[in-house]
Write a structure and sequence with these properties.
The complex is a heterodimer of chains A (104) and B (631). Chain A is mainly alpha-helical and 104 residues long. Chain A has three helices and two strands. The two termini of chain A are 35 Å apart. The chains are: A mainly alpha (104), B alpha+beta (631).
């Protein structure tokens, strides 16, 4: 049985760049998350220090992990989008319409 | 009012599903909504899928009872999306067709992978289905006044109708609708909490008078608690393991249980709430249970920044958190203890436990980060499973096939991160709001958010309950589509190679959905009373152990073989389920002593995830490398 993806996907010249970028951005976030877990395990009292507007380190870092995920995601999207446009310009005929479909 | 809004909502959801049924005439329409859902709709639908009963009911309930430790689930659940976005989203969209199995099998065309991945999808979906169904029963019980089992059956029946009529298209739009409404009404609820501010005597906006719990000075002589106050006589004393002491005191016509709190050598008796399961029926707080005599709602601040009997008025977002975090703010939380009294009846006591605000707002009340090495390892294990579990959940993975391109998959993930992140920030305010607004049911933390809404009036309660119910409906629909895909598409069509035309494939999916829905109903009834968040945490651990090593390694390690993938999936499932089955938490559920459990950890991820990775590497190195198959 022919087993193609649910919608045809054109060649993606930006693929290797996006994979590399994704791994790097994942590594940065994973370090941040690991640091949070490590502080909890090694110096839990530190989490109680008041650091901003009456809030303690635990609350502030918790919010930063959530907001930081969104900021990283937006940066990743912007960089991927820029690369896709750049490489698409060079190989537009090969990509077909699907490469840009659904994009804002 | 609540019932009316609830019924309107359910009728609307089912109507929408039947209307969209026209789109599901092909298998692509049924399993992947034709691959034509706009990324922004799909992003909110992701949020709808993800913000299940565990998030809305479980996390808010945990924060309301153990403070910051509940918020750790919010942080871990959201962080998991980083793995989904940066590592999995686009490559998976390129590889797959309808199911998780398609993606891992795309380059191999191996029967072993098909079987292992289909089993994994089924197991993870069922693990995730159980808490959703339990949550549905918990929710419907007070809303419609019907027994738990009927709540589960109603959810099962509606979901089977939704899934059998339209598959992924209707599931997506139901999730979009629900995800959007959940965000809007949670924001309204948080706004209401901030406007009301904090009080040492919360009275639910003047509707429920605040109950002042009594305390009596006492002493302990030769282990026996003695009370000096006139008219109070100690009838019975029970010393519970763990150093807790409760005494039954005659006061007027009622016998009430008091908690003997000892500090600095002196003893203070604190009034509790109690449920006694006697032969002649249940007794609550020393009187027979009746519609009027139920457990009182609880939760308040005993002291706000050192002040007793005070209110703050409306607070800003930062002031709200800072006031609770202050070390001279005292939060009254409620703990539970059970014992058999002198008459041989089972007594459940809910006793007050005053905790300083700075202790509430940092980790440690539930997860013993300052405890033994094993307790800290358990915390690490949970945080690992939450981080790695999201990108391995089959019902989340299949949502990548509903959008038209890899770029759309990426963009819908970003919309999901924004929506889910915003909601998780709100959970901290909703949970803390429930903790201090005198609205909590001490016997069931899962209802924290809806009961907080009720403290602001029946209208908000009606909307929040209907949305919470739709949350369960939507998540269960998504899970059943994923599980039916595993059976009909992966097992029947691809593994057993049963020849079916497109229409037969859709029918096979619908029949599978019907059977799995029936199974979910039975399990939802059997697992009544189990903690919703705990079960979801375990589903994450199973997903991360079974699926993530396969996904990550096939994308990033060229030496990965089909045998390696199949072996790692099976080892991941067996190891995680096996470790859970012999863990202390499950031993408690079996009615055995948790100390006898052969596995000392409650969360299996720290062992089962590396084991699954190791299996994949070792088996891949031992089996011959093969060129990737096409198609």
């Amino acid at each position: 049985m022919l087993h193609e993806p649910s919608t045809p996907v054109g060649k993606d010249p930006a693929g290797p760049y996006k994979t590399r970028l994704g791994v790097w951005m994942f590594a940065i976030y994973a370090l941040f998350y690991a640091a949070f877990v490590a502080i909890n395990l090694t110096a839990p009292q530190t989490m109680g220090l008041i650091v901003f507007a009456g809030m303690n380190l635990a609350t502030v870092v918790g919010f930063m992990l959530i907001v930081g995920a969104l900021i990283e995601a937006l940066i990743y999207d912007a960089l991927c989008h820029r690369k896709e446009i750049e490489l698409e310009g060079r190989s537009a005929p090969a990509d077909g319409p699907n490469a840009t479909k659904g994009r804002s | 009012m609540a019932v009316f809004i609830f019924i309107i909502f359910v009728v609307f959801v089912v109507g929408l599903s039947i209307y969209l049924g026209n789109k599901a005439k092909t298998s692509s329409g049924y399993y992947a909504a034709g691959g034509q859902i706009h990324w922004s709709v799909n992003g909110i639908a992701f949020a709808g899928d993800y913000l299940s009963a565990a998030s809305f009911l479980g996390i808010c309930g945990l924060i309301a009872t153990v403070g910051y430790d509940g918020f750790l689930y919010s942080i871990g659940f959201l962080a998991g999306w980083i793995v989904a976005l940066f590592v999995v989203a686009e490559p998976l969209k390129k590889l797959g067709k309808y199911t998780f199995t398609d993606a891992v099998d795309a380059n191999y065309n191996s029967r072993g992978i098909k079987l292992a991945a289909a089993i994994s999808t089924l197991v993870v979906s069922v693990c995730y289905l159980i808490p959703q169904m339990v949550g549905a029963g918990v929710l419907v019980e007070p809303l419609l006044g019907i027994p738990h089992a009927w709540g589960v059956i109603i959810v099962g029946a509606i979901v089977i109708t939704i899934v059998a009529t339209a598959g992924m298209a209707s599931t997506t739009y139901v999730q979009f609708l629900k995800g959007g409404l959940l965000l809007v009404f949670s924001t309204v609820l948080v706004g209401a909490v901030l406007l009301r501010g904090l009080s040492t005597a919360p009275d639910q906006g003047g509707t429920v008078p605040f109950y002042e719990y009594g305390h009596i000075a006492a002493s302990r002589v030769d282990g026996k608690v003695q009370v000096a106050e006139a008219g109070a006589e100690v009838l019975e004393q029970v010393d519970v393991k763990g150093g807790l002491t409760f005494v039954r005191i005659a006061q007027g016509e009622r016998d009430v249980w008091w908690y003997a709190a000892e500090a600095d050598g002196s003893v203070t008796l604190k009034e509790t709430q109690s449920v006694v399961a006697a032969a002649d029926g249940r007794w609550i707080n020393g009187a027979p249970e009746s519609p009027e005599n139920q457990l009182r709602p609880v939760g308040n601040l005993e002291q706000i920044r050192g002040q007793k009997q005070t209110t703050t008025g409306a607070l800003s977002v930062f002031d709200f958190l800072a006031t609770i975090t202050a070390e001279d703010t005292l939060v009254r939380t409620w703990k539970t203890a059970s014992f058999i009294d002198g008459a041989g009846d089972k007594v459940t006591v809910y006793y007050p436990n005053d905790v300083p605000g700075d202790r509430i707002m940092r980790p440690g009340l539930k997860f013993k980060v300052e405890g033994t090495l094993l307790e800290r390892l358990d915390f690490l294990s949970l945080m690992l499973a939450l981080f790695l579990g999201t990108a391995a959940l089959p019902h989340i993975l299949i949502r990548y096939y509903t959008v038209p391109s890899p770029a759309s998959a990426r963009k819908s993930t970003i919309v999901a991160i924004a929506a889910i992140g915003f909601f998780y920030i709100l959970t901290l305010f909703m949970g803390l709001g429930a903790m201090v607004n005198g609205a909590m049911n001490p016997a069931d933390s899962n209802m924290a958010a809806p009961l907080l809404a009720r403290s602001f009036g029946e209208l908000l309660f009606a909307f929040i309950s209907a949305i919470a119910f739709a949350t369960v409906l939507g998540t269960v629909s998504g899970l059943i589509v994923a599980a039916s895909g595993a059976v009909a598409h992966d097992l029947f069509d691809r593994y057993l190679r049963i020849k079916m035309d497109d229409r037969q494939k859709v029918n096979a999916g619908k029949i599978s959905a019907f059977v799995i829905g029936g199974l979910a109903i039975v399990l939802g009834i059997l697992f009544k009373g189990m903690n919703v968040s705990f079960l979801v945490g375990l589903a994450f651990a199973v997903a991360a152990s079974a699926n993530l090593p396969a996904i990550v390694m096939l994308l990033f390690w060229k030496r990965t073989t089909a045998q390696g993938i199949a072996a790692s999936i099976i080892v991941g499932i067996v190891a995680s389920i096996g470790l859970i089955a012999f863990s202390p938490e499950l031993f408690s559920l079996y009615g055995l002593n948790p100390l006898d459990a052969p596995v000392p950890l409650s969360n299996p991820g720290i062992i089962s995830i590396p084991l699954s990775f190791l299996t994949l590497v070792v088996v891949s190195l031992l089996t011959p490398r093969r060129e990737a198959a096409m198609g």
